[in-house]
Design a protein that fits this description.
Layout (H helix, E strand, L loop, with lengths): L6 E5 L2 E6 L2 E6 H11 L2 H7 L4 H10 L4 H10 L4 H8 L3 H10 L15 H11 L2 H8 L3 H15 L10
Antiparallel strand pairs: 1-2, 2-3
Helix pairs in contact: 1-2, 5-6, 7-8, 7-9, 8-9
């Protein structure tokens, strides 16, 4: 029979950490404590050598929600690259997890998504870019860009295209 190498097996309340063919028994609370304190899968992996999948399975078995940790770290403004370094994984894996958790791929405000008719109506009602921007609670440059796009898509003549 093959000797396990760098993996963790669950045995009741304990885990057996195999490293280079030798196993050591550790209570699962010590493992969870390492994750809670470090907030880093890479640091836990250094203390408890195993694959990412194995570590995540063991964390999940004992009630640690790694996705919740990532969601908190995303909300703290950490980038995919920062988190990839923190957790010792590829930035593409972090980007996929970000998408799976419904987090914006780029920190900041979401893209403006206003129907063309609403932009044109705001401009017509206000009579200016600044007034239309105020009506839709947008910056004047953003409103002007949206208005010019809306006018070109709907085939309308953009009034005052030379204005700023």
């Amino acid at each position: 029979m093959a000797v396990p190498k760098n993996c963790i097996r669950i045995h009741g309340e304990d885990i057996i950490v195999y490293s280079c063919g030798e196993g050591r028994i550790v209570h699962h609370r010590e493992f969870l404590h390492a994750m809670v304190e470090s907030r880093s899968l890479a640091k836990v992996k250094a203390a408890f050598p195993a694959s990412r999948r194995n570590l995540l399975e063991v964390l999940n078995t004992f009630g640690f929600d790694f996705d919740q940790l990532l969601a908190e770290q995303f909300s703290e403004g950490l980038t995919n690259t920062n988190l990839a370094e923190t957790h010792g994984v590829d930035a593409k894996w972090i980007a996929k997890k970000r998408g799976d958790l419904g987090q914006a791929s780029v920190p900041g405000r979401p893209a403006v998504d206003i129907p063309d008719e609403a932009v044109i109506d705001a401009y017509v009602s206000a009579g200016s870019y600044a007034g239309g921007a105020r009506a839709l609670k947008l910056g004047s440059q953003t409103f002007k860009r949206l208005y010019l796009l809306a006018a070109s898509r709907t085939g309308q003549k953009a009034d005052g295209e030379g204005e700023g």
